């Protein structure tokens, strides 16, 4: 199968591309490589891989035409990144997503990377039928794009839990990753709104989720699915205390509220009924992250963009 991955040089994109190649697919990466090419160097020799340096904001979308499936991962991801780059968030997360959706033929499957962040600060159990109320620009742009994309029949939208774990193109700002690196390099972790909860999942389980969608197209086509595990629903305090079991550091509670006010519980029953389950625990991720950050300080490798 011919599969194109936008954002294929990203945190989830690289291991997804690797897994698709291992499964025997012909894979095309489309990415602007703003963080460099290092994350994909180990894939360059793969004969079924094609790489295109392009930006999804560009008008020419002809690179999409030869694909059977498009995994659309390219995005400004996360609350702080979108708040710092609101124009780019709008143009990439929403405008480009709509243009890609409109460009594809009815026979091309589009799998969209959405987010559970669209549930906002409900504080209650949210499933795919719950009225959504995003509280961040990231959640808003993803929701608006999802609504347009799901108007075409040959689409699947996957609402992901917050991802953690080690991957070739690390994102050290993701909550679990961030907490571990701060515990190691700063020796102190300040908790803002420490009791707020959301669901997490390992990056490898995210990759498995995309492959699952590819293998269950007939059951999932035209649907929206929360992807994660109810067993991985944690508060910030829970995460800090789990890390503290492996690493000695100080946990400081702040009376100040976090600007990122997400607080929700998510039901993953719909995807689970089809057979999808996460295989990695929070502790699995913490252990590998500690191993990484003991020799890697992300703040020592900052590059100009």
From TrEMBL:
It is an enzyme of class 5 (isomerase). GO terms for molecular function: UDP-glucose 4-epimerase activity. Its EC number is 5.1.3.2. Pfam families: Epimerase (PF01370). Keywords: Isomerase. SUPFAM superfamilies: NAD(P)-binding Rossmann-fold domains (SSF51735). It comes from the Bacteria. Signal peptide: none annotated. Residues 3-228 form the NAD-dependent epimerase/dehydratase domain. This is UDP-glucose 4-epimerase. It comes from Symmachiella macrocystis. The lineage of its organism: Bacteria, Pseudomonadati, Planctomycetota, Planctomycetia, Planctomycetales. The gene is galE_2.
